[in-house]
Design a protein that fits this description.
- The complex is a heterodimer of chains A (354) and B (376).
- With 354 residues, chain A is of the alpha/beta class.
- Chain A contains 14 helices and ten strands.
- A seven-stranded parallel beta sheet of chain A has the order 2-3-4-5-6-7-8.
- With 376 residues, chain B is an alpha/beta fold.
- Chain B contains 15 helices and twelve strands.
- A seven-stranded parallel beta sheet of chain B has the order 4-5-6-7-8-9-10. In chain B, strands 11-3-12 form a three-stranded parallel beta sheet, covered by helices on one side.
- The longest helix of chain B has 18 residues.
- The interface between A and B is medium-sized, with 34 and 33 residues.
């Protein structure tokens, strides 16, 4: 397929084929991709509004048996820095989040074999008791609990829903290619298992996000296959609310790599918007890109600037640490020419706020 | 509601879509060889169509340089931080008598360069207005640094310093520049311009030389065959109009004397300054300024994306918005890091080339005169 054919396909709003996406990825100019993605963004989200959330990423434990090679956050149970968050510390974090106008917490942790279902259900109930939504337990965690405790995926989800689980974050997706996963995250759920958890969650009425961590050992074709797999599941269930791509950040003791640069990030973000015609929102990653490129991404297909992240530990462990207050977030959105609106974990508008 | 630009000289096969009618008019003007004016510049800075603006600037950039992005193997040296100007936007200066003040003797400055790799092509030497330095210091400084790296070109001093050095020697700018040239000076740096607006000057740097003086010093340098750069420090208290007027004044000067080689937008960093309550420009503002500069400064060859201040990711992106130069290896950047820059203080050749390649351009090494350095 020639480049102009791929561009015309993207412009038309018809579903972008794998081949067309590959041609665009490899040959289209940055600004061309951005303009195509911008058109798609406004076709799907016509209002010049950019949403954001006030929340906190709470990692209930860093003890993890998966041992993914790109991760600088995990610790073995015997390590001096290993921890499990106790209720007092957790309650303090929840209070602070509420005081800052937060709507929810992102609740994730390492695959820790010593925490049982009761423990998790109690924690979910604790978060709920503060009037906060719990956006928690990525598919690898759910899959891990099912295996560990001899439950079906659905059983784990139903118990968590009963305890108050509100939505599921799209983490642990990395690249949905088993060739890649066998090398970078062999101790974690496979692509099929990740998708199965999401499908089960959607069928139980849970909304979820989806992510992609790119820029390590994956090929272009594998990146695009990742997007196509998300798109295919979305056709079936419609449960993904948003998609967040970001580049791998090499850190201490992780696989070597040069983090993908600013333009590569913008290209992949734009392509994501073009391929995922059935996912409503695409989120910019200021956490990995910083506020400047995070804001510029608003012109490359994104309509959401993510969360103010009162706390963030995982990417920070790899040595990448940016911070944004609500005021700075709103300023970035407004100076880019958009209206800022606060949302919660399921992309509902938060009334009475900007 | 969209219109297509007349993308001249672009390598892209697609006309670019311009969503803002003002940008369409600007593209038509450019295609007809008409210069942009204040209203055009403002329209660029105020547009909601960032990518449309970028594509016009990209076309102008590609018409000159195709897919090349330039960088230089250089070393930044600051001979003193003791300064009587005490500009409110500056975190680098120290008052005379401050325990953190320093002066490098000519030998100390030379020692910082000695042992520099043979491939070093340029030394960027700036300091401050230090009341204790006499004329002979500056001559000796240049001579010492030049001897330490004879193959490197000396890009030294801002117009502010030239004016000061001339006064110390009780000579004219012309005599001063000639003497410095003899001692090894190849080019002037672009700093000290800040914003040409009198309003901003009165508020932020009242004791510094005026815009007229800054431009006159550069005029003198150009007439002596000394190439210079030009800067704009933006994202503090200046208005959009003041930004554009600054660019127009540079363009006028270039029409008169023709010696500006590169324009470098400088991103204001508030840390440790007396303007620390300000936020500095956003990524979108930075890209808009780069693009607007490329379109307005039709007579200045190069637009630089100074990675220290932009950050490497924004600098890579800026190459698509009109910038063609990535600045250099630098080695030890101090001035912006005092004000809170979080970038490295230097990059090596391999890193710079990789950043440029990852951004989709072809890295080309250049020297101080923007001549291509032949690869080995």
């Amino acid at each position: 397929m020639k480049l102009d054919q791929a561009v015309h396909m993207a412009e038309s709003g018809d579903r972008l084929s794998f081949t067309a996406a590959k041609v665009l990825h490899e040959e289209a100019d940055l600004l061309t991709l951005g303009q195509l993605a911008g058109t798609a963004r406004f076709r799907i989200n016509p209002d010049p509004v950019v949403t954001y959330a006030v929340d906190r990423n709470i990692n209930y434990t860093n003890i993890c048996t998966a041992g993914c090679h790109f991760c600088a956050f995990w610790r073995a149970g015997s390590h001096t820095e290993a921890y499990v968050l106790d209720d007092e510390a957790l309650a303090k974090k929840l209070e602070e989040t509420k005081a800052l106008g937060g709507t929810h917490v992102l609740f994730q942790g390492g695959l820790n074999p010593d925490l049982d279902m009761e423990w998790h259900q109690d924690r979910i109930r604790l978060v709920r008791s503060f009037g906060l939504n719990l956006h928690g337990y990525s598919p690898p965690e759910i899959h891990f609990f099912a295996r560990r405790f001899g439950l079906r995926i659905e059983d784990v989800l139903v118990r968590f829903i009963e305890a108050g689980l509100s939505s599921i974050p799209g983490g642990g997706a990395e690249i949905l290619s088993d060739r890649v996963r066998r090398i970078v995250s062999p101790g974690k759920a496979t692509s099929r298992e990740w998708l199965e958890v999401m499908e089960a969650a959607h069928r139980l009425g849970l909304k979820t996000s989806a992510t992609m961590m790119f820029g390590h050992i994956e090929t272009v074709a594998e990146r695009l296959l990742h997007l196509v797999r998300i798109r295919r599941l979305q056709d079936k269930t419609g449960g993904f609310t948003s998609f967040i791509p970001w580049p791998y950040q090499p850190g201490p003791h992780t696989i070597n790599g040069r983090p993908a640069g600013g333009t590569e990030y913008l290209r992949v973000t734009a392509l994501s918007r073009l391929v995922l015609d059935n996912v409503r929102h695409v989120q910019a990653s200021w956490v990995t890109q910083g506020p400047r490129i995070g804001q510029v991404a608003l012109f490359f297909g994104t309509d959401d600037l993510g969360s103010t992240m009162i706390e963030e530990n995982v990417v920070a462990a790899a040595g990448v640490s940016h911070r944004l207050s609500r005021e700075e977030m709103v300023r970035l959105i407004e100076t880019a020419g958009f209206e800022a609106r606060q949302r919660n974990n399921v992309h509902e508008r938060v009334e009475g706020t900007a | 509601m969209t219109a297509w630009s007349l993308g001249e000289g672009t390598l892209d096969s697609f006309p670019s879509r311009l969503l803002d009618p003002a940008l369409v008019r600007i593209a038509e003007k450019s295609a007809a060889g008409e210069r942009l004016d204040l209203a055009d510049g403002l329209a660029c800075l105020q547009t909601s169509d960032l990518l449309g603006l970028g594509s016009s600037a990209l076309a102008a950039r590609r018409a000159r340089y195709g897919n090349k992005a330039f960088y230089v193997i250089n070393h930044h040296l600051n001979y003193t931080n003791i300064c009587t100007n005490a500009c409110r936007f500056c975190a680098f200066h120290r008052s005379p008598g401050s325990p953190e003040g320093y002066v490098l003797s000519p030998d100390e400055a030379a020692a910082k360069i000695a042992g520099a790799p043979l491939e070093l092509k340029e030394i960027h030497l700036v300091g401050a207005v230090n009341p204790d330095l006499d004329f002979s210091y500056f001559l000796n400084l240049l001579k010492a640094v030049k001897s330490a790296a004879p193959r490197a070109n000396l890009k030294a001093f801002t117009a502010v310093e030239i004016d000061y050095i001339a006064r110390r020697g009780s000579i004219s700018w012309e005599e001063c520049l000639s003497a410095l040239k003899e001692a090894g000076l190849s080019a002037l740096t672009g700093g000290g311009a800040e914003v040409f607006s009198e309003r901003v000057r009165a508020e932020l740097f009242p004791t510094k030389i005026s815009a007229d003086t800054w431009l006159a010093v550069h005029d003198t340098a150009h007439r002596l065959g000394i190439g210079t750069n030009a800067t704009l420090l933006f994202g503090h208290i200046e208005t959009l109009t003041e930004r554009v007027e600054h660019l127009l004044r540079l363009r006028d000067q270039q029409d008169r004397s023709g010696g500006f080689q590169a324009f470098i937008p400088l991103v204001f960093h508030p840390g440790n300054t007396r303007l620390a309550h300000l936020a500095g420009p956003t990524g979108v503002e930075i890209l808009k300024l780069i693009a607007t500069a490329r379109l307005i400064l039709d007579n200045i060859p190069h637009i630089k994306a100074y990675w220290v201040m932009l950050g490497t990711k924004t600098a890579q992106t800026a190459l698509h918005f009109g910038a063609d130069d990535f600045e250099g290896t630098i080695v030890q950047e101090n001035i912006t890091h005092e004000a809170g820059a979080t970038t490295s203080t230097g990059l090596d050749r391999r890193e710079i080339e990789q950043l440029i390649i990852d951004a989709g351009f072809k890295p080309v090494e250049r020297d101080t005169f923007h001549r291509t350095v032949p690869s080995l």
